[in-house]
Amino acid sequence: IEFKYGPSHSVSVVNKAGFDVCDSSGATQRFSGGDTKIDLTTVGTMHFICPTPGHCLGGMKLAVPVLAAAPSPATPSPTASPPANGSPSESPAPSPSSLSSTSPSPSNAAFKGVMVSYGMMGLTMLLTFVAMS
Fold first, then answer.
1. Could you give the 3-state DSSP secondary structure of residue 50?
2. How does the average pLDDT of the chain come out, rounded?
3. Residues 6+ apart with CB under 8 A from 96
């Protein structure tokens, strides 16, 4: 996730209790400088607030649920080589089961939808930070 913000802002990573009452005194991480990139690598909810007085209470806070990555879809097996006797042969038509292995799994499609949602939340938070700076 990336936060872009003006000099009157910063980003603090807090626990749920700090998030709920906008208290950054127990922050596990603090960032300033206007451009903060944070890798979302731990499964669970991460809580971000702007610790500038009044900003978090005014809505400058974001809770981001981080889900485990969905497994990648299975890769199809390679096609068979032509017979050794040199005679051309026709490839059999793909069966329905082999076609389904090349389409994305429902869980992968859902994961992509969740990532789009997180991107939109990040964009909303970014726009909020920019508008208030």
1. coil
2. 74
3. none
